[in-house]
Amino acid sequence: MNDKIAKSKNQSTTIRGLKLLLQSKTGTIGFIIVICVVLVAIFAGVLAPHDPALNNLTATLKPPAWLDGGSWNYVLGTDNLGRDVLSRIIVGTRVSLLVGVFSVVLAGLIGLIIGIVAGYYGGIVDNILMRLVDSFLAIPSILFILVVLAVFEPSLLVLIIVIGLTNWVTYARIVRGEVLSIKEREYVKASKSIGTKSSEIMLVHVLPNIVSSFIVISALSVATTIILEASLSFLGLGIQPPDVSWGAMLTDGRNYLATNWWLATFPGLAITITVLGIIFLGDWLRDVLDPKTQVNQKGGAK
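The structure assignment produced for this chain is given below.
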């Protein structure tokens, strides 16, 4: 019986979420873009019409298929080494999402733990952890990333770890602020009064109440991380050949902007569309999950 009730609640929550999504134009557009990008990343090996790393010196700098001299065999044209631009964009989607998602997961976990511990215990623990946060904020994150990548050989794993270890401070500060408010509520004080362990209170009472804010921050952080990865690859300190990255494609195409515009234009469009889709979806999640927004909407409706 309880299982049936739980299933019905989950179904009603899913249906409500879909209705709210369809009511938001930007949310729907963002959701469609994100789903398409994820599917392209998953099936990149199947969708790519050519080997993205294969040089074909007999087909260098071919324009897109709809321009004079173009070929439908290379829909978006080729680069200076004869590599298919479309195939490289498709495969580059996988790299951008991997860096964006996993670095945000790493940063989120670190920031979540530090923020909850600092906010819940307060006192000297809070002071020590917040001074650690301040020290990280004092150093420009991009400068720190550039130094680390200059010392260590850039790779996908190194990039994820470095970005994750520099972006956790935002989570820590926001989560700490939420916890400072939550720990003063009556149900938390009641749990303390009956001798409930601090670890149990943090997991059962504190964590569920900050999940919505955490999800919204994470969704928006993926967009900024994708731009950061593209910037690092553009500078030559990100993903290294033969792996494909949108930022590296921009670097290869910047010297040909006047004559072969498609080399940099299409990777730039891929970055722009992906980031906008994630931002649209993140804004919708904020409106749906943020209790303050929900209260304002209800008040306006009255």
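Interim note for the steering committee: The domain at 16-301 is CATH 1.10.3720.10 (MetI-like fold). The radius of gyration is 23 Å.
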